[in-house]
């Protein structure tokens, strides 16, 4: 079981900003996940991997793929109080789900 | 309402590693939070701030303070598969709770 969180490298987010966006995405997708899957994931150590992409377009493609595969996912837009323009899409969380299922969506991406 | 996540600067974690630890901490403290407070926090945009400290000792001091104030919190230890020694304490999440309450614990810290 794992959850993949994909963040945009092209925005040049600071470390703390990136971490907050990843946490938003992680929690949001988790909340859309069924009780049993959540329990399994937590029981196995709530594994998370943080991956990177270089465009908004790519994030939406991955979200579509997660949707097609029936995996819970969440897209995060920044409120824009600080570094970014309001509404900027920053991150996508995919899962928790089985490793295989998550890899069907994010298996080609590199670590952030 | 907000949640503060405090991470150790002295470990030299990579960006993705840091983000994953912050997300762990955020989710863990959230799960220890009462239903009503969770709902309020989410309804107000689930504000998160990521702060930094320079030692494990300081993280534990802050956790004690959160405990005394009766705020939900979670300390994260890394499983140590990659960058860090197994069991290394990496992050602490405080809240969600009211801004005032969280500031009593983390008000003196700077952004990560």
Automatic annotation (TrEMBL), chains A, B:
Its EC number is 3.1.1.29. CDD domains: PTH2. Transmembrane segments: none annotated. InterPro entries: Pep_tRNA_hydro_II_dom_sf, Pept_tRNA_hydro_arch, PTH2. The gene is pth2. One of its GO terms (biological process) is translation. It comes from the Archaea. Pfam families: PTH2. Belongs to the PTH2 family. The natural substrate for this enzyme may be peptidyl-tRNAs which drop off the ribosome during protein synthesis. The keyword Cytoplasm applies. This is Peptidyl-tRNA hydrolase. It comes from Halorubrum rubrum. Keywords: Cytoplasm, Hydrolase. GO terms for molecular function: peptidyl-tRNA hydrolase activity. The lineage of its organism: Archaea, Methanobacteriati, Methanobacteriota, Stenosarchaea group, Halobacteria. GO terms for cellular component: cytoplasm.
């Amino acid at each position: 079981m794992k959850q993949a969180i994909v963040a945009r490298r092209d925005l040049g987010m600071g470390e703390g900003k990136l971490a907050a966006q990843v946490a938003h995405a992680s929690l949001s997708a988790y909340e859309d996940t069924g009780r049993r899957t959540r329990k399994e994931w937590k029981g196995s150590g709530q594994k998370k991997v943080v991956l990177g992409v270089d465009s908004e377009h790519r994030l939406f493609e991955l979200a579509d793929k997660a949707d097609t595969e029936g995996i819970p996912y969440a897209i995060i837009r920044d409120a824009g109080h600080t570094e970014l323009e309001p509404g900027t899409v920053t991150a996508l969380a995919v899962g928790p789900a089985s490793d295989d299922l998550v890899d069907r969506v994010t298996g080609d991406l590199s670590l952030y």
